[in-house]
């Protein structure tokens, strides 16, 4: 009788350990990919690095218990990739300026964070084909008299550290360029009057102008000298010589061809973004 009780207790202990195994592992968020072995990356788990400070592309909210919820165009894109290719993932959220370093140090398998495939970045990482066209813009205070690119000459311009916007801002004649960690910090500098203009993505200006009455903005013309040689597509960044590039390139092309990518873009940026 005692032996039966001991065996029962042991069985219960094993069950309890099984239920709680892995609970100490902290992950930001995990994709719910199925167990379909026919999918090319079934059974694989990846760390995806991003900077959740790019409105409409990736942002994060934290509830009272500390649970993080991510949303945005890139998050929907990641979910679609996870579903179609069969992998699971966790998100590693950090400053934008640290994303390339995370790839190089092996702390992340890929970066999906509204990152443009610039020539400078290509020296250190490999990029997928582009999944969305990038557009550039400037935000200014209403009444500033700044309405065109030419008006920016000699002005104080702010942008996110390590972005292609920094490259663009430095092309403005005699501009005083300051960099900050993340779009919200740059916007705050503009609202406080410490900079004259904010260089940012064209997808953001409508939202900012609706949210802040004192904000105005304008798009950078496609043929502007500021845009010359600047990368025009957002892409996934991988460590150099990553075997993942090929399979992700094929999947991105499929999403573009079947209209899924356009649906994601319209959801977050509106019809006008893909219509131009």
From TrEMBL:
<keyword id="KW-0675">Receptor</keyword>
<dbReference type="Pfam" id="PF00497">
    <property type="entry name" value="SBP_bac_3"/>
</dbReference>
<dbReference type="InterPro" id="IPR019594">
    <property type="entry name" value="Glu/Gly-bd"/>
</dbReference>
<dbReference type="GO" id="GO:0015276">
    <property type="term" value="F:ligand-gated monoatomic ion channel activity"/>
</dbReference>
<feature type="domain" description="Solute-binding protein family 3/N-terminal">
    <location>
        <begin position="45"/>
        <end position="272"/>
    </location>
</feature>
<protein>
    <submittedName>
        <fullName>Transporter substrate-binding domain-containing protein</fullName>
    </submittedName>
</protein>
<feature type="signal peptide">
    <location>
        <begin position="1"/>
        <end position="21"/>
    </location>
</feature>
<keyword id="KW-0813">Transport</keyword>
<feature type="domain" description="Ionotropic glutamate receptor C-terminal">
    <location>
        <begin position="45"/>
        <end position="271"/>
    </location>
</feature>
<feature type="domain" description="Ionotropic glutamate receptor L-glutamate and glycine-binding">
    <location>
        <begin position="53"/>
        <end position="105"/>
    </location>
</feature>
<dbReference type="GO" id="GO:0016020">
    <property type="term" value="C:membrane"/>
</dbReference>
<dbReference type="InterPro" id="IPR001638">
    <property type="entry name" value="Solute-binding_3/MltF_N"/>
</dbReference>
<keyword id="KW-0407">Ion channel</keyword>
<keyword id="KW-0732">Signal</keyword>
<keyword id="KW-0325">Glycoprotein</keyword>
<keyword id="KW-0472">Membrane</keyword>
<keyword id="KW-1071">Ligand-gated ion channel</keyword>
<dbReference type="InterPro" id="IPR001320">
    <property type="entry name" value="Iontro_rcpt_C"/>
</dbReference>
<keyword id="KW-1133">Transmembrane helix</keyword>
<keyword id="KW-0406">Ion transport</keyword>
<keyword id="KW-0812">Transmembrane</keyword>
């Amino acid at each position: 009788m005692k032996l039966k009780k001991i065996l029962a207790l042991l069985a219960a202990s094993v069950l309890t350990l099984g239920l709680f195994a892995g609970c100490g592992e902290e992950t930001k968020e995990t994709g719910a990919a199925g167990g379909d072995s026919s999918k090319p990356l079934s059974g694989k788990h990846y760390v995806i690095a991003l900077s959740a400070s790019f409105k409409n592309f990736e942002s994060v909210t934290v509830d009272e218990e500390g649970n993080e919820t991510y949303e945005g165009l890139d998050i929907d894109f990641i979910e679609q990739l996870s579903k179609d290719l069969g992998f699971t993932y966790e998100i590693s959220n950090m400053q934008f300026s640290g994303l390339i370093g995370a790839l190089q140090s092996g702390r992340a398998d890929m970066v999906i964070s509204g990152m443009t495939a610039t020539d400078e970045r290509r020296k250190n990482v490999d990029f997928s084909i582009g999944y969305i066209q990038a557009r550039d813009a400037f935000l200014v205070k209403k009444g500033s008299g700044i309405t065109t690119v030419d008006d920016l000459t000699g002005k104080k311009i702010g942008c996110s550290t390590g972005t292609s916007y920094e490259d663009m801002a430095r092309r403005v004649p005699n501009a005083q360029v300051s960099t900050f960690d993340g779009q919200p910090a740059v916007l705050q500098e503009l609202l406080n009057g410490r900079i004259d203009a904010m260089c940012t993505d064209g997808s953001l200006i409508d939202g900012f102008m609706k949210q802040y009455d004192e904000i105005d903005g304008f798009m950078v013309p496609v043929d502007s000298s500021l845009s010359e040689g600047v990368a025009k597509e957002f892409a996934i960044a991988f460590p150099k010589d990553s075997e993942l590039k090929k399979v992700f390139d094929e999947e991105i092309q499929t999403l573009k061809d079947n209209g899924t990518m356009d649906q994601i873009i319209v959801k977050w940026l509106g019809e006008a973004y893909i219509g131009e």
